[in-house]
Amino acid sequence: MPPRDATTTCVFVPDEILIERGCEDTTMARRCRARAPHVPVTVIDDRRALAGGDFAAAKRRLVLARRRGAVLEHCPAGTRGLACCNYLVLTFASNCPMDCRYCFLQEYLAGNAPLTAYVEPETALAEVAELLDRHPERQFRIGSG
């Protein structure tokens, strides 16, 4: 592999794409299949059934699914006894394909390693737009975590 510099782009190419049933014809699923035609695609019933198994192999998978629950949530650090900065987390995906030895997520995600991309980003953006429209007088801190 040639040496990398600051201009090199790293692209995640999964070993397998798993698409949750009902998401097969979404724009994101079509784009993933088109951009990685050599990657095997499997339709699964429920991504939660993937928990456990070989951690390293799981990190080489891409799961496409609908987000269960709210897409825009208050930061989990805002718990009782801590000062809350009102940061809102917008979740487009979960987990990470990287394998950084120092990262606490290696242990935290051990039972749920596959990178999961949520197939309806327009729903997330609509949720943000609705919040902003409801409160035009406020400023919000919104990020990806």
Provide structural commentary.
- The protein is α/β, with parallel strands linked by helices and 145 residues long.
- The chain has one domain (16-143): 3-Layer(aba) Sandwich (Rossmann fold).
- 21% of the residues lie in helices and 21% in strands.
- It has four helices and eight strands.
- It has a five-stranded mixed beta sheet with strand order 2-1-3-7-6, covered by helices on one side. Strands 4-5-8 form a three-stranded mixed beta sheet.
- Strand 1 (16-20), helix 1 and strand 2 (41-44) form a beta-alpha-beta unit.
- The two termini are 32 Å apart.
Write the layout of secondary structure elements.
Blueprint: E1 16-20, H1 27-35, E2 41-44, H2 55-58, E3 61-65, E4 72-74, E5 87-90, E6 93-94, H3 105-108, E7 115-118, H4 121-134, E8 141-143
Parallel strand pairs: 1-2, 1-3, 3-7, 5-8
Antiparallel strand pairs: 4-5, 6-7
